[in-house]
Structures are given as C-alpha cells and as structure tokens.
Amino acid sequence: MKVSLGAEVLAMPTPVWIVGSYGEDDKPNAMTIAWGGVCCSKPPCVAVSLRKATHTYGNVMRRKAFTVSVPSEQYAKEADYFGMASGRDVDKFQVTGLTPEPSQVVDAPYVKEFPLVLECRLLHTLEIGLHTQFVGEIVDVKADQDVLVDGRPALDKVMPLLYGTGGKMYYKSGPFLGKGFSIGRGYMA
C-alpha cells in the first residue's frame, strides 16, 4: 500500500549539474543545481531552475547564456561546495582548485575537469514560483575523449553524480541493464 507524502519535490533521481556563468565583473562562477533536465530534442534544449536570489540567476539574465558541466563521482565534494557557497562572496574555482574554461560559443565558462559540458544560449525563461526555469538551447557539447564510445558520451565512463531529493544525498549510477527501445520489445504486439 502506498502512503501519501503530500506535495513535495521527491522525483528521483535528479542530475547534479554545475551551471557556469560570468558575473558583472567577468568573474567565472559555477553553481550546483539538481532541478534540471532535457526539455526538447529539436532544437536540443535543457532546462535549469534557479532561485532569483542566486548570483547565477542575475548572471544568466544579463549574459543570456550558461553552461552545464556534468561532474563525475570523483568530484562529489567540489560539486557539493559549488552548491553551498555563493559566487558573490567567494571564488569557488580558486577554493576548489578547479579550472574555469571560457566557452568559445557562448558567453559563459565551464569546469574544465568535468567530463561533459553543454554550452547553452538562453532561449526562454518561465517564472514558476520560487524558481525561474531557464531553457537553454544547446549550441555545442564538449566531452573528454576518454568518456566517448562510438563518438558518444557513455554513462559508465562519465560516471555522473545523481541526487536523491528525499534524503538530500548524492549517489552514483549503477550497472548497464539493457539497450533502450530494445529490452521491452517482448511486450510489443
């Protein structure tokens, strides 16, 4: 029997993404988000939801661009820190020793050490409530060569962090289960 938990944000899992932006002073900034996902395939787009109070919110509104860097499990501590500290008060790259890399296609930096990066130009904003959803059109994807299989990023090589909203905990992805649009074929009429 299922038990009602009320209206809460308990979707699982959510990605751990690092949104890169530049401040008014052109200082690179990075913020961890878990409220994000793919929202369109043509044009290719992702959506990230940010609170107006964040430094990143103002940066994205001004520059009309952001990046999404996908951290691997080995960077869990750095990713967590990027979500706790504010770029208004501290240089997160300097503190963690990670490297801000300027995008060549959008006006935003990404985290050089993270294996997968989506470079986005701001396409739409939607005021939802506490959060504003930013829809970014992906204008380029960059990946470390060692995470590619047949020219595409492989989940078991990127090893992205996952976030469990219920307990506010980080997880890693599990083993390969089967090929999409294939393992369920036995149910097709």
Automatic annotation (TrEMBL):
Report the cofactors: FMN
* InterPro entries in alphabetical order: Flavin_Rdtase-like_dom, Flavoredoxin, Split_barrel_FMN-bd
Give all residue intervals belonging to the Flavin reductase like domain.
12-170
Q: Which GO molecular function terms does the record list? A: FMN binding; oxidoreductase activity, acting on the CH-NH group of donors, NAD or NADP as acceptor
| Keywords (A to Z) from UniProt | Flavoprotein
Tagged with keyword Flavoprotein: yes
The family classification in the record reads: Belongs to the flavoredoxin family.
PANTHER family in alphabetical order: FLAVOREDOXIN (PTHR43567:SF1), FLAVOREDOXIN-RELATED-RELATED (PTHR43567)
Q: What is this protein called?
A: NADH-FMN oxidoreductase RutF, flavin reductase (DIM6/NTAB) family
